[in-house]
Amino acid sequence: MKLLRQITIILLFVFLGELLNKFIGIPIPGSILGMVLLLVSLLTGIVKLKQIDEVSRFLLDHMAVLFVPAGVGLISVIGVVKDTWWILLLISISTTFLVMSVTGLVVKFTRR
Amino acid sequence: MREITSTALFGVMISLIAFEIGLMIQRKTKKSFLNPLLLAIAIVIFVLQAGKIPLENYNKGGQWIAFLMAPATVALAVPLYKNFELLKKHKWPIIIGIFTGCVTSVASILLLSKAFGLDKALSMSLIPKSVTTPIGIEISKQLGGIPEVTVLAIVVTGITGAIIAPFVCKLFKINDRVAMGIAIGTSSHVLGTTKAIEMGEIEGGMSGLAIGVSGLVTVIIAPAMVTISQYLIHL
Predict the structure, then answer these.
(1) With an 8 Å Cβ cutoff, is A66 touching chain B?
(2) Contact flag B15-A65 (C-beta cutoff 8 Å)
(3) Do A71 and B223 count as a contact with CB atoms less than 8 A apart?
(4) What are the residue boundaries of the structural domains of chain A, listed by start?
(5) What is the pTM of this model?
(6) What is the mean pLDDT of chain B?
(7) Could you give the ipTM of this predicted complex?
(8) Set of chain A residues whose Cβ sits within 8 Å of the Cβ of B120
């Protein structure tokens, strides 16, 4: 029953986030709002870490596999990237290098 | 055969098996560019094409797996919570670093997309490529991008980040563990974080924290920067 309760708590925060997004109209994705709500609840002690620990670890450890369906969906848009795939690849790789370098250097020098 | 592939079980099973094969290949070869996720996507696409199985059949099961993305995003609150003390202690360098990183990311993508003459839907798809997938998909939809293209850009970014992290570390002499962790999480989300965890506990924790914060920052700044760019460079 412990795991079931953990799943219920996490789904409840997903739902609360969706609620804020859809009905109050906060223009931030519902799952992000749910994450913020859960963080606040953990910090204020409304939710204890041990009440969600196992299920959240399971979800975080297996996050990569959750992206498979979204990636497979690419075959439905293959025509869109047929001519531009190399540009997309080039931009993706070069900006990753740029962002990592800039972020690392900024944190390094602002900590001095 | 047709009946079997149109059940939810098929999509779930083939995704999990493909991922296991991907993990096995990476474990055997130890090559970081042979990412299990990328391999799994390739294997599933190959099976669908070879068996002439329509995407909608696969998606009956696929949507069960994708459903877990929202709870997984909510669960990102846990590493944020666990590293909250470290975050408080170094809050300004961390916040300034992540913010600068996110602005750099969106700005460089906008400029390069313009330079290469990409159309709007494609450049919007690239904008959230440094944030974690569930957040990235939402941002992409909001900006008018193509979520499938975004997912691929996110995966490529994550794998790139995991490969270049040690190299960037050496090149710019970043021996500060907090700085390196933040840099990895901000630029290459969950996939980069797997490398950060290998590098050390502080790197891993900081990288995990940066995933959540950079996701939030990008959600807020991306629409604003896109609007500004329309005036400045007529994208």
Answers:
(1) yes
(2) yes
(3) no
(4) 1-64, 75-112
(5) 0.81
(6) 89
(7) 0.88
(8) none
